[in-house]
């Protein structure tokens, strides 16, 4: 669930940024188009009205066509209200070389950069022309008498964007879409991880059933065969009968240990609450060494130890169990009359033996369920000891490391991440 939350946050931020940028561009582009359309309409209205005023102001004197200036001047005073932006009116005068000159008749202030290009394009094409640079420039030709070009209207406006409304709209839209996309993506991830987890659990279940069946087959076969032989009266010799009983007891002990290890592993993996208190690792280690002294004595093995005090926050019983597993393995795979060294230095505990060692091929598998060395030394092993040891270590935040070489012994180190 924690991983899914992190994925959701990452993808939400990612999609929010992408979608915000996209819709910001769309919003700005749409806003500019609307503003440009409005300016084009206003420029066309002004140029048309000027053309009408010119038509109504025509007078003839001695065959000469004249335009009354007063009506035009009066109208020009009102065009600012129509344009609602910076506006200029130019008359177009053609000289003897047919070069057109633009003379301002309304607003003599300097025009923005690129204005003359826009106005000449409007005059040459006899239609409204616009350009968008730092602002919006719109030019509309003015038709004079007999549809001759009288001049042009120029309107300029800065690009106006309602940033607050736009930002709010973009934020709302991008947030909604990002939430939806992130939710769908995380739903997919959840389904995918759940599917993978179910596959993993199913594989574990199959492996567990196969492994437990394999481990149970031998002792059950021995017990069944021995009991049938005794029941059928095949075994009559007292000495042989005693051997059969001894073998059945050994298999029963193995079954008991297998069940106990399975229960321990199940409880630990199920999140059994650890009763953590502040304990001295030296005292726990000494306790575990005393518990294994009898087994070590059977092989004349000496457990030498050099233990410094180390206060840790841990479950005494589980740490003792972990150490007993390590000591038991060290004793099991060590030759008779050898020495096992146990030490605590700083925040690290090590158990070192001079036994059979573990080959490079076997080393990666030693923490796998039911994996065990098939030698005579491990005949009674369940293949669960080191699995339990690793689970206990992980529950306590302990780093467990195994360094071993074939026929040169094994060193197991436990490091507390203080």
Compact description:
It is built from 9 helices and 14 strands. The chain has 418 residues and is an alpha+beta fold.
Structure description:
- The protein has helices at residues 2-56, 69-76, 79-83, 115-125, 163-231, 238-269, 281-298, 316-332, 385-395; strands at residues 58-61, 64-67, 86-94, 100-106, 129-132, 135-143, 149-158, 276-280, 302-307, 311-315, 339-345, 348-352, 398-405, 409-416.
- By secondary structure, it is an alpha+beta fold.
- The chain folds into three domains: 2-161, PAS domain (Beta-Lactamase, 2-Layer Sandwich); 194-272, Helix Hairpins; 274-416, Histidine kinase-like ATPase, C-terminal domain (Heat Shock Protein 90), CATH 3.30.565.10.
- The strands form four sheets. A five-stranded antiparallel β-sheet has the order 4-3-7-6-5, with helices on both faces. A five-stranded mixed β-sheet has the order 9-11-12-14-13, with helices on one face. The protein has a two-stranded antiparallel ribbon with strand order 1-2.
- α5 (163-231) packs antiparallel against α6 (238-269), α6 (238-269) runs parallel beside α9 (385-395) and α8 (316-332) packs antiparallel against α9 (385-395).
- The radius of gyration is 47 Å and the shape is rod-shaped.
């Amino acid at each position: 669930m924690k991983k899914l939350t992190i994925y959701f946050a990452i993808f939400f931020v990612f999609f929010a940024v992408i979608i915000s940028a996209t819709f910001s561009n769309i919003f700005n582009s749409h806003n500019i188009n609307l503003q440009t359309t409005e300016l084009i309409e206003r420029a066309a209205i002004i140029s048309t009205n000027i053309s009408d005023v010119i038509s109504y102001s025509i007078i003839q004197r001695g065959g000469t066509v004249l335009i009354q200036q007063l009506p035009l001047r009066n109208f020009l005073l009102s065009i600012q209200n129509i344009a609602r932006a910076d506006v200029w009116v130019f008359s177009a005068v053609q000289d003897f070389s047919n070069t057109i000159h633009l003379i301002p008749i309304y607003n003599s202030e300097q025009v923005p950069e690129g204005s003359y290009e826009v106005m000449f394009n409007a005059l040459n094409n006899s239609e409204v022309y616009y350009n968008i640079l730092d602002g919006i420039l719109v030019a509309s030709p003015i038709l004079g008498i007999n549809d001759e070009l009288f001049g042009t209207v120029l309107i300029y406006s800065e690009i106006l964007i309602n940033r607050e409304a736009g930002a709010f709209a973009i934020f709302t839209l991008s947030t909604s879409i990002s939430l939806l996309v992130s939710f769908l993506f995380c739903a997919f991830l959840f389904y995918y991880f759940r599917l993978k987890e179910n596959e993993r659990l199913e594989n574990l279940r199959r492996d567990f059933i196969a492994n437990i069946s394999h481990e149970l087959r031998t002792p059950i076969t021995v017990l069944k065969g021995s009991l049938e032989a005794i029941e059928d009266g095949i075994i009559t010799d007292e000495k042989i009968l005693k051997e059969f009983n001894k073998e059945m007891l050994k298999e029963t002990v193995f079954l008991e240990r297998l069940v106990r290890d399975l229960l321990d592993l199940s409880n630990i993996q199920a999140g059994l609450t650890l009763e953590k208190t502040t304990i001295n690792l030296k005292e726990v280690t000494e306790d575990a060494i005393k518990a294994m002294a009898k087994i070590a004595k059977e092989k004349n093995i000496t457990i030498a130890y050099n233990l410094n005090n180390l206060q840790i926050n841990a479950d005494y019983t589980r740490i003792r169990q972990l150490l007993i597993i390590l000591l038991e393995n060290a004793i099991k795979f060590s030759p008779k009359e050898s020495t096992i060294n146990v030490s605590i230095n700083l925040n690290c505990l090590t158990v070192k033996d001079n036994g059979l060692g573990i080959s490079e091929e076997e080393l990666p598998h030693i923490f796998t369920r039911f994996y065990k060395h098939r030698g005579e030394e491990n005949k009674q092993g369940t293949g669960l000891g080191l699995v339990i040891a690793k689970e206990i270590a992980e529950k306590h935040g302990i780093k467990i490391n195994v360094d071993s070489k074939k026929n040169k012994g094994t060193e197991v180190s436990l490091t507390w991440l203080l």
